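hey so i finally got around to running both of the ones u sent me last week. sorry it took forever, my laptop kept dying halfway thru and i had to restart like 3 times lol. anyway pasting them below in the order u listed, first the sequence line then the structure token line for each. didnt double check formatting much so if smth looks off just lmk and ill redo it

first one:
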Amino acid sequence: MKDVRKIFKSGKGSYILTLPKIWIIENGLKEGDSVYLNIKRNKLLISPSNIQKMPSKMSSIDDEDLDFNQVLRRIIAYYLAGYNSLKVRTYNDEQRRAVAFASDMLIGVEIMEDLGEVVTLEIYLDSRRINLNEIVERMSRVCKSMLSDFRKMIKSFKREIGSSIIVRENEIDKLYFLTLRLINNAVWECLSENEILEVFNYRIFARALERTADHIDAMVESLINLGKAYPEFCDIIEKCEELFGISTNSFFKKDISAAEDVLNNAEIYINHIIALYTKILSYEKEEILNLKTILDGLQRIIGYSSDIAEVTINASVLS
């Protein structure tokens, strides 16, 4: 419901805006009560208390035919949609394992009640206390550490480094799902047009980080299959690492000049990788297949670095 109200001046420096009577009644307010003001550049959001409560969302899953992945995907879907409570009726061990797996992989999800056939999941997350920028910064730092450690692993093969990288890829997945939930919940904040576009840019950025981590994980698996070091690839990995670092820093610092440098250098590095594709043809067949996976991953990381740089440039018009 839209309404138009006049502003009245009171004294030398104050202004008065009357509130609709029906809104006062519906929210149980009375004279002397306080309201919460969320002040934005071109709008003022008035709430009936100092806590903006999102409605509690509850649902259930009850389908005997669902397999492990289907149950997991449905739980993730409810998580991303901002649900706070979910009852899952399980018909077999596979479905129970899916519920347990979901509670481990999703931040804030706990199994609050297990009655055998019905498992209750509660999501304990207060989106207002979680800073989206800090979450994606953490994702960025973890991705950088993964790429840096992969360079160390390919220089002097150590399986334990690979195991550490794989564990961190799981952390990236957790943070990515949390990021998507925060972004989906942002609609409750009555965002301005520019704020909505900014949140959308964060989604693109987070997706690039998540995909980068996936490719590093695949690169690690390939190197483990090979079981030995390939120091001759350290140079191109270091270049990719530097490019990725510059692109992520440009996003947080809103550095258009750095973003342009990323786009200018990306094609040069891609050409280096193309030359390496030709070089590995002299290796053994098994080596070629696994090294190609590594080079494919590096090429995709350069692509995601370019995507981040483009988002940085696009975001500059929102300032």
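and the second one:
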Amino acid sequence: MNNQDWKILDQLSRHLTITKAAENMQLSQSTITKRLKQMEADFDVRIVYRGKKGIHFTPEGEYLAQSARAILKEVEVMKDTLWNMEEEVRGTIKIAVSNFLTSFMIFDVIGAFKETYPEVDFQITTGWSRDMYERLRNDEVHVSFIRGDYQWRGRKHLLFEETLCIASEKPIPLPELPAAPRIDYQKDAKLDGMIRKWWDENFIDVPRISMVLDKAESCREMIRNGLGYSIVTSLVVRNMEDIHKTELKDRDGKRITRGSWMFCQEKSMDLKAVRKFVEFVESYNLSRP
């Protein structure tokens, strides 16, 4: 058994498919299968059964997968501790980033940070904000970048605030909004709830949703081509000077906004690389979307 074998068990237990595990580890499926058979021979137990929809762990396999996760964590702690003893800032920072923030800011931030600290590496996970938040809560990453207001007692930093707005090719009078074709896209539950709340406070009729897209970027192009309006955050329609934007306001006339945050586990700040990165982001100049 080597470190890669433990990683294979960990990935298989997380995804329950050889295809996904191989993809995440950048290995061939045949390599995963070969190593799995070798592990079964070494331990003289059946680790998994193959089914039509993936793999199923045996009780012995479940035990080995849990042990693999613990061993990988211990190796990670040892590496962090050793790197923390050195004068040079080095190590691997694990971050979780919401999908949209990945394209908007994170690569610029990491690029700027690595100019000063080239020996620091990153493991980046992307997805919905709620999932990135849970990864931090479960101690799977050091730092999370998320959109929306989540409860967090650890270290946190407000990156910027976005305004919710109605975006359309031409101005649409508010009373005419329910009859106008609306373009929706898949978004996180918190943002969807904010939009629903505003709509219910202003209209009796349900919106006329003409299409639902999987990405905000596609929504931008549909708006640009005059195929309808959408209710989005200002970040989605940034740099679109040809698009009309009407800010949403609550009953008190205040702009409806939501923040994007950096959250960090307090204990992770004991790691030199993480501490330097968090402090770097806190001082990094991010202009308001």
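quick thing i noticed on the 2nd:
The mean pLDDT is 89.
anyway thats it, ttyl
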